[in-house]
Amino acid sequence: MIKFYIDGREVTAKKGETILQVARREGIYIPTMCYLPKVKPIESCRLCVVEVEGVEGFVLSCQTPPTPDIKVKTNSAELFTHRQNIMKLYDVNHPLECGVCDKSGECDLQNKTLEFMVNSQEFTAKDQNRKIKDWNYIQYDPYLCILCEKCVHVCNEVIGDDAIEIEYGGYKSQIIPKDAPTLDCTFCGECIAVCPVGALISKDFQYTSNAWELNRVPAACAHCSAACHLYYEIKHTSTDNPEPKIYRVKNEFEFANLCGAGRFGFDFENRAKKDENAFKNALTAFKKADTIKFNSIITNEEALILQKLKNRFGLKLINNEAKAYQKFLKKYSEFSGRTLYSADLEDIRNSDFIIIFGSMVATDNPAVRYAMTFSNRKRNSEIINFHPMEDELLKNVVTKFVRYEVGTEEGVMAMLANALLSKEDKENIDKEWFEDLDIGYLSAESNVGEEEIEDVLKRLTRKRRVRAKKSTLILGEDLYTHPRAENIARLAGLIDRFTDFDVMIIPSKTNTLGVSLICDLDEEEGDFVIGYNTDGDFVLSALGDGDLDMPALNQQEGTFTNIDKRVVPTNVALPYEGYVLNDIARALGVSDKDYTIEFTKELPKEKGFKAIDFDELPNHFTNAGQEERGYILESNKVAISREKVEEIEELPEFNGVVIYRCEPVLQFSPFTAKTHQLNFSSELVGSKQFSIAAKLKDGDEVVVKTSFGDLKRVFRIDTSLKGTIGLLETFDMGLSYFDILSDYRYQVIKIEKASGQ
């Protein structure tokens, strides 16, 4: 800890902090233009300079760590003049288009031009011919670009796309796609978010509203289990139509990230009014039903209402995807000794060694990808990816890819446990089990060579020798949907308990973790099924295609339990005039609440939830970037099971045409498919090798015969893919999509050409 002074005030810096970081934490203002806390100091704007007593000239506060007892001055006549001249230089080549610029009213350049009283201009520069670029969802105007480099740094250091760079040429300098004729990226839109001016904008938002006309609603993204913080920005449609609509989504870009689905897939609301006949039919159906089937794209409060309906009427609760996760987490807990997995996204960001196993993580959960990218760029972390298919989007950060055969996850986990656990640990756990483990067989059948596991260990040893800080094991959906999921969970629990690896088990859907903790889930449905956002004999649907309409998650108040084990609030962005689940519960005598959020403080304490009213939950970030959203679940100790790890079953073979159920970038479910910017069709995607094996050509219309039905798809060749496994996209299946999520993601299928081909 280092004590020093800013503007006469005594402050303390932690190891590694800069003067600017301390100032922000202490609420002391230092102007910046290029600074972004989540990337390395860019040092291009020079606005953050300060004076240090005894030091000649100005000091860059964004990159300078303090030394004991220095006296820092953040404001003086000399500093003001220096910053004013910088703003003049910025303004000299920036056209005065504020009246028609989408950034007007929230523009850093505009604000600081006023702040530093730039009311005259002594500098001149020759105007350059620059063309506006159309990059899919994004528009780039080089006339407005001030070359602060924020977009380049966030794309490389945080997102991992590394898709843009600066083309240097004096006043002709501009941002260009890297190694490509046009922008080739995952279109997360973070470049739009961090741009301080109107150079990078959303094409969909352009010329639709002034920033100051929009009302900002803090919420949580409803598309994946990261439940990232965001703001829905809304206003009425027109003077003739008072109906509000969402115009765009923004995020706290200084500290947090958002993927393209969260940023561009916002209009999935269900515009519905109360249908009294449909509501009466729903009550009749509930009285007749013996089963409620639902999915995890719901709030914690709704999950609790469903559990109360089960308790009152003896109904079965079916959520196969959450049930698979629940069983995996329970078995893991019995062997790890704790109710919850141990790692979160911050642990990944601070890790020096990461193993990711059983997830196409770049599309399954982009927040995990961003955390790994940050770790690799900031800490030079070692990242090992175990998967049958190499993830093209992770190539920038993965330091070793280990390919295993489809279906052999149990054997690979046994090899990992055998390698990571010490001799003493094995003796304490079950000496005979480890001695009987046939590593040669597992290696041969999984195609993971013993030398590859040895190389992983060598990399781990080498990393610990240099910086023995933190190691993380990330487990994906492929493992808890595997037929041998529970034995895989036992081994994962042992790794967590006996090694220094923290473990993350990625929840597959928005509130999978919350549902698995709140609901007592069953495995077999009965004779009459109420479907809540899934198929059933009577269907409640937020997609607008059921027997009774329900609100979408951008029309609800409530909480999600996200991947960080954090209970986060979300708020109503758009009004909903129909019935909600609590109305049904009230009519059936199960609820005495006027509003669903009255259940927030009743979430089960024994599962780690807290008795806090919804309106008392914080939902913001501090100046220093500390996340203050909701609260973190309490992880309780669990009695260690006396149960032994089961013998590894004979590893299966997948012969024939094999597909992997995997959604493309920007798609997570029928709710993302419904949005106007992300409304595209599912495909069957494969490599050249897959096309030869399946006897298909690019553009062929095919029928894919799967265990969950026949799907019509267009086949597309992706030259970045390798191997003979195809990617089957399923996000546009509607309500039936949610029935397939508990199945193992790989299967052998048959493909037929569509009629007429």
Q: Which features would summarize this protein structure in a list?
A:
single chain, 757 residues, alpha/beta, five-stranded mixed sheet, 28% helix
Concise description?
The protein is α/β, with parallel strands linked by helices and 757 residues long. It is built from 22 helices and 34 strands. It is globular and about 80 Å long.
Description:
The protein is an alpha/beta fold. The chain has 22 helices and 34 strands. The strands form 9 sheets. The chain has a 6-stranded mixed beta barrel with strand order 29-33-30-32-31-34. Helix 9 (about 320-335) runs parallel beside helix 18 and helix 13 runs parallel beside helix 18 (about 485-500). It is globular, with a radius of gyration of 27 Å.
Q: So what's the overall shape?
A: globular
How confident is the prediction overall: mean pLDDT? 96
Largest sheet, in brief, is: 6 strands, mixed, barrel
Point out poorly predicted stretches: none
Q: In angstroms, what is the radius of gyration?
A: 27 Å
Distance between the termini: 72 Å
Helix content percent band? 25-40%
Helix count equals: 22
Widest β-sheet, arrangement of strands: 29-33-30-32-31-34
